Amino acid sequence: GRKLEEARGEASTVLREQTLSLLTGTVTGRLERGLEQATGLSKVRIEPSLIAAESDPTARLTIGQDLTRQLGLIYSMDLTNGGDQIYIGEYDVFRGFTARVFHETAPDSDVDAGAKFRFEVRHDLRIGGASTATRAGSGKQEERRVSAVKLEGGSPFSEAELLKEFGVQAGDRYDFFKVRGGLTRLTSFLQKEGYLEARVRLSREESSAQAVGLSLQVEPGPKVELVYEGEQLGDQVGDRVREIWAAGVFDGQRAASAKEVIRNHLVQDGFLEPQVSHLIRVESGIKQVVFTTEPGVGYTNIHVALEGVEAFSEDLLRDHLRSAGLLERVAVASPEVKDLLKRVYRQEGYLQAEVREPVSELHPDTGEARIVLPVNEGPRAVVAEIGFEGNSVLSDERLLSGTGLQPGQVYQPRLRDEAIGRLQDLYSGIGYNDAVIEASLEGAPETGRARLSFGIEENRREVVREVRIEGNDKTSEGFIRDQLALAPGDVLIPERVARSRRSLYDTGAYTVVEIDPQEIEAADAPAGEKPVRAVIRVQEVRPYRLQYGGFYDTERGLGLIADLINRNTIANAATLGLRGRYDDEFREIRAYYSQPQLGGLPFDTSIATFLSRDIRTNANFVVDRVGFSLQQQKE
After folding, report:
1. Where in 79-152 does DSSP place strands (E)?
2. 34: helix, coil or strand?
3. pTM greater than 0.70
């Protein structure tokens, strides 16, 4: 019922799809990994692997980014047609349920002027093997239960009320965090009822390995009323005073801290000379704390000036204070103000910088005030000499080159810390993973010229004597060893450890990989060598995985999808899968098999065969396809 040219076009499309599926391989694999490292993206593919279920497998650039652990985005573009673009958003809802939104813009689409939308929900079931919650090499812990909960001490509330707030009862599974949360809730309950000095102490009694008894000592203390006379302070200040009173130890300390909060609040409101006093009286068992405030003159035009500043602009220092929320606290001589300014100076090498008490210039008649903050910058520290102590493996010249520092440059704590990190990397790169490096600065404060000394404790060089494999079940020990960049006799360096871990994860056979170096005894170990056993602990993926779900497509309507996967059962890191899809216009069943190092060759091999039916309702035409593909990609 169609023209010959149209039928030829369909045949050409099928041939193109099957041919292109064979073309992705060694060259693209290396390019992809380079792009991922260069861009920092989670996924970069020049193949249809990320969007194969959503689009025909033509030459595409596909990139993906994991925004959070639950949310990821994927973008794909046809390299031969920039108007053919695909956007995918994925969100892990809970317990294996995933929601996916798919949007395609294609010039030849008949829907919505070239746009297609799809919403999909899937459930992912993993069956068999060890639970993902079980760490490799960890044993099962016996579950402990709460045997009893006892209350001791006097309280104006009934035992039932207190236990309800505590939220833990006899028979519950013992959970440290739940118990601590209950303790916090019970204390908060007493404080909300006015018992701000309440204390609740918890003691535990372990009658057996599985039973824990809990005892609560409740000391409510007197009921406390906070009263404010004079200026209205607002709820925020009142809440802060309540927190201070509840956290305090004795009344004098509580009152002093509370008055400081009230005084700071008034100063920030423009009352620069406030007077705050307090009085404590007890009536009928109730402790009443009365705070009296006399705010004084209010100033509406307040300017903060920094005197003696030359290294920075005053505006820059004011911006630092403003960003930290401290500009309004300059007038009260807040310690945080001085600490921040000294930290800014020291980061730039002014190690002797000092900030003195503020001086207020007040003009009550005009409402203007000038707060002057005197600063003594001192000399800027210069590293006149760099020295090393305790090193024998690496020469002073090699270490100096490794620091990235040069005599004569300005001393900055950030550069010092970076130099320590570089020296640590330098030693770790030759196996001295336990090297300890510290830096000290010695110099004349009046001149600023200083000597930067690095004290080094090299310790011993770690050398692998044994490699032990733990946790494997379906995959062989030999397969795991083939992925490792570690072997007996190798110097243990972080790069080899990272490469080994990455290679094992890349096989897709493991959910957890841990590499634990353990010191062992070796009679033939030379002086300066630390013999270690590299323990490789793995946790294999659960062998069976079933993904199923439904979708709504603006082109195809409602549909169903299912994917059954088996891993590691047939061979090392082998994946065998069967995928099905069904909707009004498209039906497909696809079987696939993939395995790294098939036959011992250094290639990742993927084999797939499929049977599909594409029903073109508008054209009254049905396309049946049978296909087979073989792909090998060099590791």
Report:
1. 81-94, 97-105, 115-127, 145-152
2. helix
3. no
- C-alpha to C-alpha distance for 613 and 562, rounded to whole angstroms: 17
Domain 301-376 is found in CATH 3.10.20.310: yes
Number of C-alpha atoms within 13 angstroms, CB side, residue 274? Answer: 27
Alpha carbons 449 and 452: distance in angstroms, whole number: 10
Strands in 71-78's sheet, in edge-to-edge order, are 43-45, 60-66, 71-78, 81-94, 97-105, 115-127, 544-553, 557-567, 575-583, 586-596, 603-616, 621-634
Contact 462, 492 (CB under 8 A): yes
Give the right CATH number for 461-540 from 3.30.1360.170, 3.40.50.450, 3.40.50.1400, 3.10.20.310. 3.10.20.310
Strands 71-78 and 60-66: antiparallel
Architecture per CATH, domain 382-457, reads as Roll (3.10)
CATH fold for domain 145-219: Ubiquitin-like (UB roll) (3.10.20)
Give me the pLDDT at residue 598, please.
Answer: 64
pLDDT for 6: 42
Kindly calculate the radius of gyration of the chain based on its CA atoms and give it in whole angstroms: 35
Which of these, 442, 448, 283, lies nearest to 353 by C-alpha position? 448
Instruction: Please state whether 15 falls in left (phi above 0), alpha (psi between -120 and 50) or beta.
Output: alpha
**Domain ranges for the chain:** 145-219, 223-294, 301-376, 382-457, 461-540
Do 461-540 and 145-219 have the same topology in CATH?
yes
Contact 299, 331 (CB under 8 A): no
Q: Using one digit for the tens of pLDDT, what is the confidence trace for 52-103?
A: 444 444 456 777 787 787 888 888 887 666 677 888 898 988 778 889 898 8
Instruction: Give the architecture (CATH level 2) of 223-294.
Output: Roll (3.10)
The residue ranking higher by pLDDT, 5 or 628, is 628
Mean pLDDT of 618-633: 85
Closest CA relative to residue 614, chosen from 590, 592, 584, 591: 584
* Complete DSSP assignment for 376-433: E--PPPEEEEEEEES--SS-HHHHHHHHT--TTSBP-HHHHHHHHHHHHHHHHTTT-T
- H or E element that contains 45: strand 43-45
Q: Which pLDDT belongs to residue 401?
A: 95
CA angle 102, 103, 106 (to 5 degrees): 135
What SS3 string covers 218-281? EECCCEEEEEEECCCCCHHHHHHHHHHHHHCCCHHHHHHHHHHHHHHHHHHCCECCCEEEEEEE
d(CA 400, CA 332): 46
Question: Which tokens sit at 531?
Answer: 């013999």
Residue 449 dihedral angles phi and psi, to the nearest 5°: -80, 130
Contact of 129 with 542, CB cutoff 8 Å: yes
- Pairing mode, strands 368-376 and 575-583: unpaired
Locate 4 and state its tokens: 């010959």
Distances (CA, A) of 368 to 266, 284, 386, 404: 16, 48, 52, 51
If DSSP codes are grouped into helix, strand and coil, which group holds residue 444?
Answer: coil
Smallest Cα–Cα separation from 586: which of 627, 565, 566, 558? 558
